[in-house]
Amino acid sequence: MRRLHPDPADPVDPLEVYGDAPTAEGRPGLRINMIASADGAAAVDGVSGGLGGEGDRAVFRALRSLADVVLVGAGTVRAEGYGPPRLPDEAVAARERRGQAPLPRIAIVTRSCDLDWDSPLFATPTSRPIVLTVAEAPAERLARAAEVAEVIVAGLLDVDLPKALAMLGEGGARTALGEGGPSLNGRLAAAGLVDELCLTLAPLLAAGDAGRIVAGPALRPPLGMRLASACEQDGYLFLRYRAAPA
Q: Is the pTM value of this prediction over 0.90?
């Protein structure tokens, strides 16, 4: 991987590029990591894996190795077949030197608690998952969730994302990594919670009706962002945008 901006370097370690995670007052700093084709498709055949390459996987590992918690919507957990987080031994050791837990925790945003509790994410966890849900979720599902995960109730009918992130911060999380999907990204952006966007642009044309990386009502005004870094590998562009000061 080579860095094009701000200080050209070849090669460069993704951990160096992404090491300065964003911070926020009263909650973990939130960076979102997404991939899109050159024509804006966020998925191929319903999943993002068809867009990725070696460099994208390296960035994915680097961002997870820096995060305390990985924030993801229930639909993405189901569509992408999420499993328990895993990192190389050297990344685990580096986390422990920084005072972090050995592995990040997966935090699933769900109103219904309609999840596969027997999947490896819950049945054979490497770190205890977190379920971010609502008071009106079905009682039997809430009870089942509590057997295999930490349950955080943030809201009555809809997950109150600012409250949920604040509660994650109270639990010790300093850095959160959002992995989608687009609807959750849209809600986070609308709530003013996106501190950084890490966007991989794949050298592919996908066409079709695939959605964008952020979905939902238009942001008025659009969220201003500034380019913090740009890297390239095998035709993929790795762009990092920070939210512009209000």
A: yes
> For residue range 149-167, what is the model confidence (pLDDT) as tens digits?
999 999 999 999 999 999 9
Is-contact 101 68, C-beta < 8 A?
yes
- Cβ(212)–Cβ(42) below 8 Å: yes
Q: Cα separation of 176 and 186, whole Å?
A: 16
* pLDDT digits 0-9 by tens, 76-103: 999 889 999 999 999 999 999 999 999 9
Residue with tokens 């054979």: 124
* Nearest to 178, CA basis, from 63, 53, 78: 63
Distances in whole angstroms, Cα of residue 183 to Cα of each of 110, 147, 178, 189: 12, 28, 12, 10
Domain ranges of the chain: 25-206+236-243
> Please, what is the end-to-end C-alpha distance for the chain in angstroms?
32
Would you identify the CATH topology of the domain 25-206+236-243? Dihydrofolate Reductase, subunit A (3.40.430)
Instruction: Answer positive or negative: Cα dihedral of 197, 14, 80, 211.
Output: positive
Distance from the Cα of residue 63 to its chain's centroid: 9
* Phi/psi of residue 14, nearest 5 degrees: -55, -30
Say which DSSP state 81 is in. T
How far is 230 from 241, CA to CA, in rounded Å? 9
What is the phi/psi pair of residue 232, to 5°? Answer: -145, 145
pLDDT at 118: 95
